[in-house]
Design goal:
21 helices
Length: 385
Amino acid sequence: PMPPDEELERRFNELLIQMDLPPERAQILIHFPAEKKWDIICDHNMVHAKDPPEAYLSKLRLFLDPHGAKATRKLDSTSTQILRDLEISLRTNPIEWVREFLSEGSRGLDVLIDYLSSRLYVMRQKLELEEEDGVFSASVDSMANHHHHTGTLMSSGGHSLSASAKKINLSIRSRKSSDLTRNEFRKSAKRDKDRKMGDVTDDIHLCIMCMRAIMNNKFGFNMVIKHKQAINSIALSLIHERLRTKALVLELLAAICLLKGGHEIILGAFDYFKQEMRETHRFHTLVSHFTSPHEFQIEFMVACMQFISIVVHSVEDMNFRVALQYEFTYLGLDECLDNLKNHESDELAVQISAYVDNEFDVAAIMEEAEAKQSALDQVQELEEE
């Protein structure tokens, strides 16, 4: 039975302290009706940590160990299942369990980030090979078209044929070396499967879910912020093909960006992303997913717009804001927002207008400055007369 109000409040407040939630989340729970509070207390009391953190970490360490293949084959679950169970434990167990997971002795965050990094490496190899396939088939097609259109000229002007042949030769040569890589990749993918490693896309998504569960309390959040590799790995997870995962990544990055000192950390993570993924411009990958998505997924579009707004508009310095704004304008964001103006989603419309309404009109500011200067010049001339 539900205890009297005073007792209920006391127990609920004790539980809130245990949960170690961010202040804004705690505020929401404080205003819940008594019945809902009692439900939360009962649910919490029913959850007893099934396995200690070490049960998950010892298995993940086996997957990271180059000599751990024999041991992982004997496991009763795949890496994906282990991560799924770990995420539930991080989300539902008492805060003491999470603290033990993150403790100096367990080093749970390091293990999780090392595992995420290893899976991101596999995903990058996969993406690079897919890209090479695309480039190769495109170059072969264009050669075929070239030969088709200039067939008669080829026989009389043999030099163009040899140039063209050289070109396709080069792409075949690079193709041969990438075939070696492709075979190696297939072999290593087979080895991973034999070692009970789950699908790389599922594993990365679940690692990000685990990161979200860790960041759901102040203690975990503060640990992640101080862990440069953790933030870089979260940002790098934007290469994930699923828009749901990208949206999740952007939510975490936006939360970090809003903290004191967080903006600098996030820009650093995108500098790292640019260097790792050989982008020509920072944020290029992110904006291209937004401006020309393979599929339209509202959750991702909203998260992306919200993130860009926070990156640009949470800066005090006007010149810095204008510079950040220009980075996104240069990548084609403004044209895209014009096209999305009449989109039926209210949620997206709110995020777009939040960005557009706070944009600096650089041309107008320049005009204003010039007008002000010429007025000052006129005043000076009159005074001199």
